[in-house]
Amino acid sequence: MELKEKVSKELEKIRPTLKGDGGDVKLIDVSEDGEVKVELQGSCRGCPFSQMTLKYSIEKQLKDKIPEVKKVTAV
How many domains is the chain partitioned into structurally? Predict the structure, then answer.
């Protein structure tokens, strides 16, 4: 399974939590060096806690489950 597919499957597990708060996340790109680019959507887009959600929820879970992931960036 390629890295982008692994990331996509893991984001599907995170998505219900975000949707519970009116938000969502869209996978934009996964680079060969392990950088994941996502777009925060819905209420996550303008939320003052979006960077915390990105780093301590999305990035942490992706890094824990997929060792190839080195960084998650919102675009």
Answer: 1
